[in-house]
Write a structure and sequence with these properties.
The protein is an alpha/beta fold. The chain has a single domain, classed as Sandwich (Immunoglobulin-like). Helix content is about 30%, strand content about 25%. Strands 4-9-8-6 form a 4-stranded mixed beta sheet. It is globular, with a radius of gyration of 20 Å. The termini are far apart.
């Protein structure tokens, strides 16, 4: 009986950490490039826990405007610096380049195939060319 319990204890001791750490092994690092006046891709599909990286780009930054319920909008990134974020709440996130937001430099991130906040994002603040572009991007989102 003690041998059986010991086998289960060892099995749990080995398997449990593997299960708990498995999300770390499956997380991806995704990149969004900052081009002259746009992000590439403009719509990024990711999973919960993926690391999203915007490499250093002269004259650009990242500022989140809206996200799913429970998301606390972080401070905007510094100009000309790499920016990284890990999004833990499924839903759509909307961001822009602060100095170029009215020129249509906006992007969306769809986390976990969850588009339940699509209507809220479509009503979010947008300036200049970003108004039409936001509507166009919202129409392109798929699950």
């Amino acid at each position: 009986m003690i041998k059986i319990q010991l086998k289960w204890l060892i099995l749990i001791w080995v398997v449990a950490p593997m299960f708990l750490l498995s999300k770390l092994c499956y997380s991806a690092e995704l990149q969004v490039d900052m081009l002259k006046m746009s992000y590439s891709p403009e719509i990024l599909y990711s999973e919960v826990g993926d690391k999203i990286v915007w490499p250093k780009s002269k004259g650009h930054n990242v500022e989140f405007i809206e996200g799913p319920s429970g998301f606390s909008i972080p401070k905007r990134s510094k100009m000309n610096k790499q920016y990284d974020i890990i999004l833990e709440i499924p839903g759509i996130y909307y961001y822009w380049c602060t100095p170029h937001k009215s020129q249509g430099m906006i992007g969306l991130i769809v986390v976990g195939k969850n588009i339940s906040n699509k209507i809220e994002i479509s009503k979010a603040k947008a300036l200049g060319k970003s108004k039409k572009k936001l509507a166009d991007l919202i129409n392109k989102i798929h699950n």
